[in-house]
TrEMBL record:
A molecular function GO annotation: dioxygenase activity
Similarity-based family: Belongs to the DODA-type extradiol aromatic ring-opening dioxygenase family.
Cofactor: Zn(2+)
Gene: ygiD
Keyword annotations: Dioxygenase, Metal-binding, Oxidoreductase, Zinc
Cited CDD domains: 45_DOPA_Dioxygenase
PANTHER family: 4,5-DOPA DIOXYGENASE EXTRADIOL-LIKE PROTEIN
Descriptive protein name: 4,5-DOPA dioxygenase extradiol
Residue runs in coiled coils: none
Matches recorded under SUPFAM superfamilies: LigB-like
Length: 273
């Protein structure tokens, strides 16, 4: 395996204006092949994003308890990690390149935290179902970083904050999950009304994000009574924490797709203004 020097890593990601950070509520995989208010907003935002040197996604659907992995295959395979959906969803293409040099640059930024390179994973639906709208024809490498599901939220926040400097080298970071994600309480009928607790938890977390009350967001179950219902497991909440860690303290956020889908899936998303 080729060994990359510091010069290799620095030359691959040239200094750039600071790139934005996004957190995207990805919701139902069917959004990948749907034309609706959510997907149209993804397309609108994607068209206005500055040109990146790499896109790095932190998806709720890649959990690696006890470690953090970074994709480093030269070309990404598409993972159809779901069942019970129309066959058309499992035929969605998303041809994209990876980049072993960028993967090593990310690992280097983690410093003493030992992240692992992973050529076996690909792009799961938390990534490609959003990118088919945000970046439908990627011209830069796309990588994923996994979530250590055993890591406490404050430690997760501190760990991903180490990657912040890569925003100044053309890296566009996207967290992909859902702040409110109670799939077991989903209402499948069209135009279903949102549960009161889902609306409440979405509201209070949105306020905390806007006001950058990080301590509360890193301890949601003690902070808000509705958290136990709205976040029965925090796999989809963690990408928001990772995205939040990449923000500068004085950066403003703008929200989009602030609706509750299927009664219990919060689509609230944000990006640096």
């Amino acid at each position: 395996m080729r060994q990359y020097s510091i010069a290799d890593l620095e030359s691959r990601l040239a200094p750039s204006p600071r790139m934005p950070v996004l957190f995207v509520g990805h919701g139902n995989p069917m959004h990948a092949i749907s034309d609706n208010a959510f997907t149209r907003e993804w397309s609108r935002i994607g068209a206005d994003l500055p040109e990146a040197q790499a896109i790095v996604v932190i998806s709720a659907h890649w959990l690696t308890p006890g470690s953090t992995h970074i994709t480093d295959a030269p070309r990404n395979r598409v993972i159809y990690d779901f069942g019970g959906f129309p066959d058309a969803l499992s035929r969605v293409p998303y041809p994209s390149e990876g980049d072993p040099v960028v993967a090593r640059a990310i690992r280097q930024q983690f410093l003493d935290y030992e992240a692992q390179l992973d050529a076996q994973w690909g792009l799961d639906h938390g990534t490609w179902s959003v990118l088919v709208h945000l970046a439908p024809e990627p011209t830069v490498p796309v990588l994923q970083i996994s979530l250590d599901y055993a890591m406490p939220l404050p430690e997760l926040h501190a760990t991903f904050a180490r990657l912040r400097a890569l925003r100044d080298r053309g890296v566009l970071f996207i967290g992909s999950g859902n702040i409110v994600h109670a799939l077991g309480r989903a209402r499948w009928e069209p135009h279903a009304q949102a549960w009161d607790w889902a609306v409440e938890f979405d509201r209070v977390t949105g306020d905390a994000l806007r006001e950058r009350r990080v301590d509360q967001l890193l301890d949601p179950f003690r902070t808000w009574d509705t958290a136990r219902i709205a976040v029965p497991t925090d796999d989809h909440y963690r990408p928001m924490v990772a995205a939040m860690s990449l923000l500068d303290p004085d950066e403003d956020l703008s929200f989009f797709n602030e609706q509750i889908d299927m009664g219990s899936i919060g689509m609230r998303s944000f990006m640096t203004a």
